[in-house]
Fold:
Amino acid sequence: MNHPLVTAEWLFNNFTTPDLVILDASSSTNKAALAAAEQQLQVKGARRFDIAKDFSDSESPYPNMLVDPAVFKAQCEKLGINNRSKIVVYDNLGIYTSPRAWWMFKTMGHEAVAVLDGGLPEWIAKGFPTEKIKPANPATGTYNPRFSKEQVKDLHFMQENIESQSATVIDARSAGRFAGTTPEPRAGLRGGHIPKSKNLPYTDLLREGKYKSPAAIREIFDQLALSEKPLVFTCGSGITACIVLLASTLIQDHPTAVYDGSWTEWAQAIDA
Structure:
């Protein structure tokens, strides 16, 4: 599992691989107003990876903020995850929240993790085994994360980067939200973007719930005229930024990070 994406066929053919753990990172709500066609099924044997409830900092004033490594460890162990686990994560929209879960594991030092390209819709379309969503009761795991702080950027870094330009900032929101001409989905949040950031809407990288080909993705990134600088990805609250970050890893090897507070933090903390 050296690749960030696996196909439904790959997962089906490797279904009985020792230490394989399948995680359902679907969300019941989202700010993009997307609705899953199937909300009652899961990939057979999947375990629920609840980003909002278990893997986001409940004490932060901002949504979806990454949890402390100690919390991540405890929640992973409840899911029966071990350091040797080979993890495949998916969601019921095809590609939406699953890259966020993938990024979390990568940030915590777990290399054997991949996203199911096309997610649950693709799995169902192929006729592979599903079941009604039900709680999993795995044996408690033993998990020791190795947190990489370089992959998470805070407000202070983002402020300094406006002048230093040590990293290129890529915003995954729509062009309208980036320009401030389309209202933000969070009530009362002003529009606009971080100065000197570039816009690459996450939807540009997807087709029918799956990632476009590496060649198509490369062509899209080439339009940004990127230098060799590290890349920092942002969006509304750190979810869709991870879609674009994962896409970037398919075609280049720049160091990458997520501005975890994203526009929700920036718009409230920085005067227009």
